[in-house]
UniProtKB/TrEMBL annotation:
The chain holds residues 83 to 404 of 404 of the full protein. This is Sugar phosphate transporter domain-containing protein. GO terms for cellular component: chloroplast membrane. The chain crosses the membrane at residues 17-37, 49-69, 84-110, 136-155, 161-180, 192-211, 231-248, 269-287, 293-312. It is found in: Plastid, Chloroplast membrane.
Amino acid sequence: AGDAKVAPAGFFQKNQWIVTGFFFFMWYFLNVIFNILNKKIYNYFPYPYFVSVIHLLVGVLYCLVSWSVGLPKRAPIDANLLKVLIPVALCHALGHVTSNVSFAAVAVSFTHTIKALEPFFNAAASQFILGQQIPLTLWLSLMPVVIGVSMASLTELSFNWLGFISAMISNISFTYRSIYSKKAMTAMDSTNLYAYISIIALFVCIPPAIIIEGPQLLKYGFSDAIAKVGMTKFISDLFWVGMFYHLYNQLATNTLERVAPLTHAVGNVLKRVFVIGFSIIVFGNKISTQTGIGTAIAIAGVAMYSVIKARIEEEKRQLKAK
Ligand code: 3PG
C-alpha cells in the first residue's frame, strides 16, 4: 500500500478542465441517446404529453431514491424558496412539453435546428424584457441564424406548423427559464435545484396530459403500443428515456454551475450539432440541400454570435477594471 500512487495536493483543482470536459462529454452523450430513444418511442407511441410526464416522473423517482440515501443530501425548502422555484419550473414544464410535441411531429433534426434560435430569443429578452442594450453588431451577427433557420424550414421534408410553432414556444419558455433561474441558482446547489424543479414541473404536466391525451390513451394508445413492441419493451423504453432525460438535464445544470453562461449556451448549440448529425444517420432522414445549407449557416451563425458576444463582454470587463 506504501507504493500506491497518490494524486498530489491540488491535482484535482489543476485538472478542473478535465472534469469540466467530462461533464460536457456526458451531457452530449446522454442527450444524443435521449433524443434517439425518444423519437423511436414517438414512432410507435405518438403521445408527447404523456411521454413528457414519464420523463419527469422517472427523474423524480430517481431524485427521491438519491435523497433517501443522502446522495446528495436534500437541501431544505421553504415558502420563499418555493416562490423563486415555481416560475423556473413552469417555464421548464412548458418548454419541455412543447419540445416534445415538436419531436413527435417533425424530424428530430428539424426541432433542434429551430431550437438553435434560442440565443436569438435570449438576446431579444435581454434587450426588450431586461432592458439591457444589445449592440447592433450583436444583432447583425444573429441575422445568419435567422436566415439559416428560415432556409432550412422552407424545404424541410418533415415540416408542419405544429412542429415549428411548438419548437418556437419552447425557445420562448427556455429563455424565460434562464431569466428566472439566475435568482434560483444562488439558492442551492444545482443537483438539488434540478430535483425540486422536476417535482414541480411534474405536477404541472400531469393535468394537460390527462385532458389532452387521456381518452385516446385508454381507448387505443397503450394497447396499440403494446401490440407493436410488447409490454416489456414498451415499459423499458419509457423507463430508460426518463433516466436519460433526467441525467442529461442534471448534467447540463451541473455544467452550468462550472462554466460561464455564454460557454454553456455555446455548448448547448454544439450539442445540437451532434444530435442533428446522429439523428439523421440513425433515422436515415432525407434532408434537402437547402435544408442542409440552412442548418449549417444557422449553426455557424450561432458560433459567430457567441464569439462576438464573448468579445463584447471581455471589453466591458476590461473597462470596469480600469
Ligand atoms: C426536452 O425534452 O425538454 C427537450 O429535450 C429539451 O431540449 P434541450 O434540452 O435540447 O433544449
